[in-house]
């Protein structure tokens, strides 16, 4: 089922539901219609030739008197790995650089200002195996190394912010590994890095074998194109994580992920979108595609026989807006680039309309949460 | 559009999408299929005769060795008001008692253990008018008064927990008004009351004109049928509110609401469901149905002319489970009773599987949130 050829929810709805009813279905499921963003013919042709899906959409905001529209284009890239997982490490990295590089070139043709890749984009998502070699060899420094240099080149060449989620090797602090997103400014400078705050222990996601919970808190990066943050993968299940990025001012929160159909697909359309609504910000959920096969078999702690893959990464990357609307999802099966034009003025407009921050009573929660984490916490339970 | 006769999303999908594709559509949209709960013929006939929709579904859990299944049936009731809004106050209240009473009788036939009514169920949702009279006359004491007596009779008669969200008059504390849910034990005793923590200032929801933010914190009620909490209406937009009920042990969180199509319909399927996922608990979202007309016109602060209703309450009540699945929604247009059989063991099973509480790092958030509410809070922003 998870590996079925089912291409996308949106396309299936469009194919079968008559227009008059489709309007209500789309409104209830996806909120206000996003407009289609017209992309240049050369971009469309390049995507066709390079065999990836290209979609564009727009989120508009109301006109204001004192602020100009703040128009930003974000690019979300989802892709399958290129070489088999037992190819030489550097060849796998180089092949992924090449593949993602040709998608970024199309993003540049589409006027993208900020591009974000999927989680651990330079490698297979090999943590299911619990083996250390050769997977830890994919780890790189966030400040130097082939991948960061590659991203710096892209950033300068295309005047684009690049969010690059990698397996990080921190040589300065005991050669430890981290799951990290590096943010490269459009100047080419490394603006900073932010680490995955919540590490899963579910299904085949044995990542806690490799790295610990991030120690970079909830940094927000002020870029020329707005304030951005990165909530990596499993952090999307934690509403407090989204919330704290938002409290620090994030207008766009990227969620580079790697997750499979059997485990999480029905949760995928809910969580990042709820975060956009609850925090009056844009969220960008990115998942890889395809099935990754490993040479050595491994078990999944589910009573089933040993096997060589962890299931089907279902893509379906999307952008959600603070007004509850969302973009169509990219394909469940193909590499893709989703270009979304955002007017960042929408975030404050929806903040003023709905007022969740104003009505949030955060002082009460700070007190209650401080009590709740104490050893002697007594839940507030009323009995007859 | 909001007042369109569109009956329900689920029915439209079933009508048009071929079975082979419907399976994937349903899986992505609604998670694991819930089983249909067979209800007694006399209940089905009574619902037909009394002209309301009756639906039943089951959420199952895995077998355990040391715990028996903990099977509970909840009933969610959604309804339109019965009399015109300018009928005498006591006649309106009595008519609603009669209507809801006949639905509760069917709930009893269905073996419901805990029933929850919609927000401010004894009255029209008149706060759009900003008038004080006659609407404040609908307020009643939580401890005595016709509505609590009525609920106590139902509770004893049917051995059922009754969650009764009313406009409360607190005579002891300066005759103040509150938006309150009273929880009546199946013994007939008032177990307690819990007040709406977050009050909206959006659209026609001028409730802050009538009552303040609740002062009862995040109490959980230990009943014979599990630990329950009530997150009233606008509180569903606040992830911290759901979270704190869950931290206090809630296994089922009811969300009695009143909300209209134009404002919130695309957010409705997202928020309570996200809360069930994020907090490893069941959530029950209840909304009223129909359009309520008022004698005096009022404006909506949206540049439009004065008018006499605040739009269409779209029903669509549903139950969401911790595993990401959800029940079908009740109708957008009709009175209804949704009976859901829950195995409460699912909450701890999903907690053990996904581990959001274990990986939640609440000490970090307690510290960050405590800082974030200070006057001199400096957002954690990195600049080039």
UniProtKB/TrEMBL annotation, chains A, B:
GO terms for cellular component: cytoplasm. Gene3D superfamilies: Carbon-nitrogen hydrolase. Keywords: Cytoplasm, Hydrolase, Phosphoprotein. Residues 72-344 form the CN hydrolase domain. Pathway: Amino-acid biosynthesis; beta-alanine biosynthesis. One of its GO terms (biological process) is beta-alanine biosynthetic process via 3-ureidopropionate. Its EC number is 3.5.1.6. InterPro entries: Aliph_Amidase/BUP (IPR050345), C-N_Hydrolase (IPR003010), C-N_Hydrolase_sf (IPR036526). The keyword Cytoplasm applies. It holds the Pfam family CN_hydrolase. Belongs to the carbon-nitrogen hydrolase superfamily. BUP family. Homodimer, homotetramer, homooctamer; can also form higher homooligomers. This is Beta-ureidopropionase. It comes from Conger conger.
